[in-house]
Model the fold of this input.
Amino acid sequence: MIKGKFRYLIGFILLFLCMNPLTVKASDAFDIYFFYSSTCPHCAAEESFLEKLATENDNIIVHYYEVNDNQENQALMQTMADERAVVVTGVPFTVINDEYFIGYTEGYTNIAIEEMINNATVKDSNSINYTIDIPLIGTVQTKDLSLPIITILLGLIDGFNPCAMWVLLFLLSVLIGMKDRRRIWVFGLVFILTSAIMYFFLMAAWLNLTMFIGSISWIRYLVAVVAIVGGGLNLKSGLMAEGDGCEVVGEEKRNKMFTRIRKFTMEKSYILALGGIIFLAISVNLIELLCSAGLPVIYPQILALNDIQTFQYYLYLLLYIGFFMLDDVIVFIIALITMKLTGISTKYGRISHLIGGVLMIIIGILLIVAPGLLMFG
Amino acid sequence: MKILKFGAVWCSGCLVMKPRFMEIEKEMPWLETIYYDYDQDKTMCNKWQINKILPVFIFLDRDGNELFRLSGEQSKKKLIGLIEKNKDK
Done:
């Protein structure tokens, strides 16, 4: 029999391996359409480069089209150019998938072509040609699900980290004690929303920074190190936990927080009280950010690796934060309805440490050795 | 036999154990339990050296001596088993 925590770990690794399409090989040929003139020296240079490329890689097939004396080839070049909305001003004209090159410069075009082929090969090996039928939604390609799944998974793992929950619980306990449902509504909601907005802006800022300096590979390595170290810490705390319980927060820190919470909630002026709650949410989340073991830094890096539209980046961040806040929202809603405090078992926190630890280590390693495998879309 | 329960309002695990213990107390009305809040009952917490993990359940014999203690969330089944086993002590 596999025991307790190891059962979760093994189950999760199997799940991740199922999700990660590492085992699929690109079997399709890779086509390059090369339009050239027999009298052009740049075409000759590219032709030798492409011949060498095709010899070294069985999957690459170069289609050669001489356009000086062949009207059929000229027409094909025109069609391909029209499809890509480009005016061909000269040859060589090279088409690879949706991309194209006009002209050839040794040391630039050849490197760009090689990079494009590498990226496309990685994308090919990433793609699973399987589809699944989801009721009401229809047929969905599994590769399109990878990014949302990883977003939800990381959001949940980050959310079940119990660091910041104790502040919300104490706040709700004080509010319930006041027997003022309206205050619970307003103050609880403001606390949760402020936490979510702050988290969103922090992650969006990091996402933009990552995309802005994304070409600098040491940033990726730095995030990878954060992921591996953070993952190791998570795994350690998941495996070493003596049982499911709450770690006692330091006396001084706890008392300071409790004094603030009491002061803000008892404040007669609604505006001042709200300001206090917002200040509280910001300060708590800033301090407790360290507790998240780097997930808010790691996730934007994964997003930045995926070629999606700008608004989709922010939608994914919102999805992440939605699941990150889920446990807080559940506790808040139950408190509102029942006027009683409910806890979410710390067992989930321990499981999230274990799963999160493994996931973060895998992500860290992939960021170093094969970042292409994190390009899901 | 008596059980001392130590918990806090900010502790999720303590809140999970609250209804679980209420059910046990309903099923075993003879069982004597006392709850101490970690932030309000400092003297008792210090006396029983509660300082690392919450909740804590200390099982005492009829003379008030500690039989054993449990830390963290516990299943209802396990608690009932232990109470049955030690109820005459």
Q: What stands out?
A: The mean pLDDT of chain B is 92. Chain B touches chain A at residues 8-16, 18, 38-39, 51-55, 71-73 (CB under 8 Å). The CA atoms of residues 9 and 31 of chain B lie 23 Å apart. The first strand of chain B starts at residue 2 and ends at 7.
